[in-house]
Structure formats: structure tokens, C-alpha cells
């Protein structure tokens, strides 16, 4: 049967271009500005661009848009590259930097001047703003607009040579001060700025502006489809003007799509940076954030991110995706891939009074009941176990099928036990539950004598690995509004809960950074890459097992 899958609007444009011979090969790119860490929105852009190149046998370029030296940091360059690698986007091991093209960009500016399409302007930034007009009124032409080509060439060269102080002169495109599109009113394309650049040091004291640099970078690399987000829609005429005036033989075209937004989380570098700088989170990779390094640390996989981005699709109108969909994707991805182990996060002791004091037996347990390929492991069982506090109740409500005085339950993979008594401390908290076990009911014996309604998990106290477990909730509380009246984020005070003393079955000992497991009846957890050590293991909750999310 023929596969019927609707093509998104970008695929339609590309297919038409290839059919009509506008291009015979497509090239896309991901052009991050190294001014922060990448987040889930960038993953969408990376996977979209890389996915298109792959689908149409084209080329995907990875390029740092480092035209703005003030904000750039080598730390960001490094982390961004790690994230792109993690997602598996293949850029042939070649990383481009716009700063490699500064000479060509300068040449392109000279070319515009020679064509009479650019001029050096001495107006101050404030005057330029005043002359620009408004959405309802046309702008006024700069008094420097009609300088001769020779004079412009000389002045621009002098700007480059360092003759003029910062901000005293700019190069502007000569387009149309009456254009209804403000971006076309003789936009500034080069400025004088003495700033040290992470790649070019102090070689340059003039830097190109984004709206000029971007089309030129794309054209230099032979990009065909320059995919960006909707806020650049109004800049498209300028993009087209630049590539037309510079007479590139197969000019790139700009296509816009809607940014990815998620409910209950903070996307947008500015907000994330503020949380980091204010010390509200533990760095750019705090597991409550949705930077890619945070998602990785939290235990998300590249496969789950890809599934999520695919499910989101590509659209032309802004909307927010439910965070629960991201959780759905990681659950789906890990479901068959990870071992299901027993871990007790809020422990109380369970003592089996009639079990021999020094006896240890080992139960053979399937690692994943839905995937035999993951094999099995031995789980030790002994007289003193830990169980979850919530699996015992002194006075149970109706339909509570777990442990309470007189009730019998199944200890997962082991025996039936019956609650005989319990001990409380001076504050009235239960500290120990005492049971008896029935050897006949041993798991694997095929016991059919009687049934029990509840099954609970456990960990042998003498064998357990002690660990710290961190539970996360969304960092902002969207139900009460993401922002407070003063524009600050409405933070969820419960976004992090630390459980200091949890007990995990010994098979998990030695797990490495990022390794993840299902803790049965609870959720998926992974070894924290930053803080976990063999002496003090730390686990992050990736996601709980429960979900109200349904895929439409
Ligand atoms: P931020 O919103 O975090 O400030 P940015 O757009 O300033 O991001 P850039 O480094 O300039 O970040 O972006 C690199 C690429 O990623 C751009 O092509 C941009 O359009 C795309 N991008 C950024 N945010 C999103 C998003 N939320 N959804 C999809 N694509 C995005
Ligand atoms: Mg940006």
C-alpha cells in the first residue's frame, strides 16, 4: 500500500524548487548565535533543517552566527556543538563560523557601494531613529544619502581602518525611506565597534548587522532554503534585496515557520540566562530547564526529542505544545529499552518474623517483561526489607489492597506476606511493619492456593544501595500564569524535592552517568551526571509512570 503522509509546507516548497530546477541540490543550515545554551526550540530547528537535507539528499550546514562579539562566549560554542552532536545531526564534522567570512562580507559591502546601493551615514543612532518615521508616516532621507560612490568607498575603508570612533558612522543600504516596511528604510548594514572577537581578536573594528550578514552567509555557503522563525517574516524583503543586489547566481530563499513553545517551562535564552545568573537553578543544565544539556542530564534521549519534534510538526502559526507530550515521548522511548528495577523512595522497614535470620535467597527476575532481549537478573531477598511507606496503612480506606494489619499481599517476584503487627515511634509514626511469609507462595512455584489483591515492591535492606533521589516539577506554574505582574517568572516553589535516603536494589550499583532505569510502580530515573559518585549515588526523576496525556 502506498504510504500517504502529508507533506509540510516547507517540503512542498523544496519539492517544487527541485522539480522546476530552481536548485538541483538543497542546502539547509542551523545558525545559532553563541550567546547561550540551546533549548528544545533549537532542537526543532536543528532536526527540521537536518531532516530536510537528509530527506532530499542535500547538505546540512552547522554555522555559528558570531557577528556580535559582545555576547559570544567560547563556553557556549562548546556546549552548542555538544548538543548538535548529541541530537545526531550530521554536519560532516565541519563547523562554520560567520567570522570566517568577514573579508567576503566586507567585499559584499564594497560591491553595494560601487553599485550606488549603500552609503556611509554620519547621523547618530538617535537621529537615524528619528529619521526613520513610523508605521504611519514615511521616513526622511539622510543628508548623507547622496554622497558620491568614491566618497563612500573612501569613508568605508577609513571606517575599517579605525579612523572613526565607535558609533560615529555607519554604512546603510540605500533602499526606500518611504517603504511601508520599516526594515527597508535604508537599514544600517555595518557599524563601527571596537570589540574583541572570540575568533578574529582585534582584527576588525567594523561588524556587519544581522540583516545584511545573514543572507550573505547563506549565499556564501550555497544555502538554498534558509529556514527561520516567524519574527523574521518582515525582514524577508530585505533578505531578498541583499541577495538580488549582490547578484548571486542561485540566491537562497528565506522561509519562516512558527517557533516551538511549551507549556509550564521556560524557553527563550533571556529567561533561562536570568534563572542561571540569579542562582535559582543549578546552572544551564539544571534538570528543571529545557535546555538540551538539562534534558540530557534529566535523562531524556535524543530519540525522545526526535519523536517529540516530529509529533509537533511544522506550522506557520504560533502555539504552545503541552509539556506532557514531551513526557509521553520519553516514556514511549524508554518503555522497552530499560530495565525495570525495584527502588524504595520513602522507606519503612518490613520484617518477616518467620524468615530465617541469616538466610538470603536470589530471585531470577526479568529485566523487562515486555522485552525478553533485556535478559534477567538475580535479586536478593532476606528477612529485613524496605517497602514504600505508602504501601502500609494502619487504618486503610476502602479499596486499599496493600498492607494493613491482617491483610496479605504479594511481594513482587517473591512471596506472599501477611501483616501481623507494626511498631510506632514516640511521635506516632510507623517505623516497622512485621509480617509472616508463606513459603508455598514462592514466585515461580505456580502457587494457586489463594489470591491476593495487592502487589508491592521491596528491597532487601542488607543488600540495598543507598541513594539520593531528586524529584522535579515544572519550574513555572502556568496555571497561575507564567509571569507575575512585574514581568518576573512565577516560580513553582516545589520544583525540586530531594529525597536523601532511598534504597535501590543492588543490580543498579555501578550505573554510569546518564544511565536510566524504570523504578517499578513509580517512574523513570537516571544517574545524575553532575553530582552522582559511587559513594553518593544521585538519581533524577525523568518522568513518572502516570500520565493523563493522550496522543490525538
Ligand atoms: P531564543 O528564543 O532562545 O532567544 P534565538 O532565536 O535568539 O533563541 P538563535 O541562536 O538566534 O536563538 O537561533 C538559532 C536558530 O534556532 C534560529 O534559526 C532560530 O530561528 C531557531 N530557533 C530559536 N528558538 C526556536 C524555537 N523556539 N523554535 C524553533 N526554532 C527556534
Ligand atoms: Mg537570536
Task: Tag the structure with descriptive keywords.
binds adenosine-5'-triphosphate, single chain, elongated, binds magnesium ion, 7-stranded mixed beta sheet, Glutamyl-tRNA Synthetase, domain 3, alpha/beta, 552 residues, Ribosomal Protein L25, Chain P, Rossmann fold
As for the number of domains, it is: 4
CATH architecture verdict of the largest domain? Beta Barrel
CA-CA gap between termini: 24 Å
| Beta content | 15-25%
Largest sheet: 7 strands, mixed
Structural class determined from secondary elements: alpha/beta
Can you give the helix content as a percent range? 10-25%
* Average pLDDT for all residues: 95
**Total strand count, please?**
27
Reconstruct the topology from this structure.
Blueprint: H1 9-19, E1 27-30, H2 40-55, E2 59-64, H3 74-87, E3 95-97, H4 102-114, E4 118-121, H5 125-131, H6 149-161, E5 170-173, E6 188-192, E7 206-208, H7 210-220, E8 225-229, H8 236-245, E9 253-257, E10 260-262, H9 269-277, H10 292-298, H11 302-312, E11 319-321, H12 323-335, E12 340-341, E13 343-344, E14 347-352, E15 361-366, E16 376-381, E17 384-388, E18 408-411, E19 416-424, E20 430-438, E21 455-456, E22 459-460, E23 465-472, E24 496-504, E25 516-519, E26 523-527, E27 538-544
Amino acid at each position: 500500500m502506498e504510504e500517504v503522509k502529508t507533506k509540510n509546507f516547507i517540503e512542498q516548497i523544496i519539492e517544487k524548487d527541485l522539480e522546476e530546477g530552481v536548485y538541483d541540490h538543497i542546502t539547509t543550515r542551523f545558525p545559532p548565535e553563541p550567546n547561550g545554551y540551546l533549548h528544545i526550540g533549537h532542537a526543532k530547528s536543528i532536526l527540521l533543517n537536518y531532516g530536510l537535507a537528509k530527506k532530499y539528499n542535500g547538505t546540512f550546514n552547522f554555522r555559528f552566527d558570531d557577528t556580535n562579539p559582545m555576547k559570544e562566549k567560547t563556553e557556549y560554542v562548546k556546549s552548542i556543538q555538544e548538543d548538535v552532536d548529541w541530537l545526531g545531526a550530521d554536519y560532516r564534522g565541519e563547523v562554520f563560523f560567520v567570522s570566517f567570512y568577514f573579508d567576503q562580507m566586507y567585499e559584499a559591502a564594497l560591491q553595494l557601494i560601487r553599485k550606488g546601493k549603500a552609503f556611509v551615514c554620519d547621523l547618530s543612532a538617535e537621529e537615524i531613529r528619528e529619521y526613520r518615521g513610523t508605521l504611519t508616516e514615511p521616513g526622511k532621507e539622510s543628508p548623507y544619502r547622496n554622497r558620491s560612490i568614491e566618497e563612500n568607498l573612501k569613508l568605508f575603508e577609513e571606517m575599517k581602518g579605525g579612523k572613526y570612533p565607535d558609533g560615529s558612522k555607519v554604512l546603510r543600504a540605500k533602499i526606500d525611506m518611504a517603504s511601508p516596511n520599516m526594515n527597508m528604510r535604508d537599514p544600517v548594514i555595518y557599524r563601527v565597534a571596537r570589540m574583541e572577537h572570540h575568533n578574529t581578536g582585534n582584527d576588525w573594528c567594523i561588524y556587519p548587522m544581522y540583516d545584511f550578514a545573514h543572507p550573505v552567509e547563506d549565499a556564501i555557503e550555497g544555502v538554498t532554503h534558509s529556514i527561520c522563525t516567524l519574527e523574521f517574516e518582515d525582514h524577508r524583503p530585505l533578505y531578498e534585496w541583499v541577495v538580488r543586489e549582490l547578484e548571486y547566481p542561485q540566491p537562497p530563499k528565506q522561509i519562516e515557520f512558527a517557533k516551538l513553545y511549551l507549556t509550564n517551562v521556560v524557553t527563550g535564552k533571556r529567561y533561562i540566562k536570568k534563572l542561571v545568573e540569579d542562582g535559582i537553578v543549578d546552572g544551564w543544565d539544571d534538570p528543571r530547564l529545557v535546555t538540551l544539556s538539562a534534558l540530557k542530564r534529566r535523562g531524556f534521549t535524543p530519540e525522545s526529542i526526535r519523536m517529540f519534534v516530529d509529533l509537533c510538526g511544522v506550522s506557520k502559526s504560533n502555539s504552545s505544545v503541552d509539556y506532557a507530550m514531551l513526557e509521553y515521548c520519553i516514556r514511549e522511548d524508554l518503555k522497552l529499552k530499560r530495565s525495570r528495577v525495584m527502588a524504595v523512595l520513602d522507606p519503612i522497614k518490613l520484617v518477616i518474623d518467620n524468615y530465617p535470620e541469616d538466610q538470603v535467597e536470589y530471585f531470577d527476575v526479568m529485566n523487562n517483561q515486555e522485552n525478553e532481549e533485556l535478559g534477567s537478573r538475580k535479586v536478593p531477598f532476606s528477612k529485613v526489607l524496605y517497602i514504600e511507606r505508602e504501601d502500609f496503612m494502619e487504618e486503610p480506606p476502602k479499596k486499599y489492597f496493600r498492607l494493613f494489619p491482617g491483610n496479605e499481599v504479594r511481594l513482587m517476584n517473591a512471596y506472599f506476606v501477611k501483616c501481623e503487627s507494626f511498631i510506632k515511634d514516640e511521635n506516632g509514626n510507623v517505623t516497622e511493619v512485621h509480617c509472616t511469609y508463606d513459603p508455598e507462595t514462592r514466585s515461580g512455584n505456580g502457587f494457586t492456593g489463594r489470591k491476593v489483591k495487592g502487589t508491592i515492591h521491596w528491597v532487601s535492606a542488607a543488600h540495598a544501595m543507598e541513594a539520593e533521589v531528586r524529584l522535579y516539577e515544572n519550574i513555572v506554574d502556568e496555571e497561575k500564569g507564567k509571569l507575575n505582574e512585574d514581568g518576573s517568572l512565577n516560580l513553582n516553589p516545589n520544583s525540586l524535592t530531594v529525597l536523601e535516603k532511598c534504597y535501590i536494589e543492588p543490580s543498579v550499583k555501578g550505573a554510569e552517568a546518564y544511565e536510566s532505569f524504570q523504578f517499578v510502580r513509580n517512574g523513570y530515573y537516571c544517574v545524575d551526571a553532575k553530582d552522582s559518585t559511587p559513594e553518593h549515588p544521585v538519581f533524577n526523576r525523568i518522568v513518572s509512570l502516570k500520565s493523563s496525556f493522550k496522543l490525538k
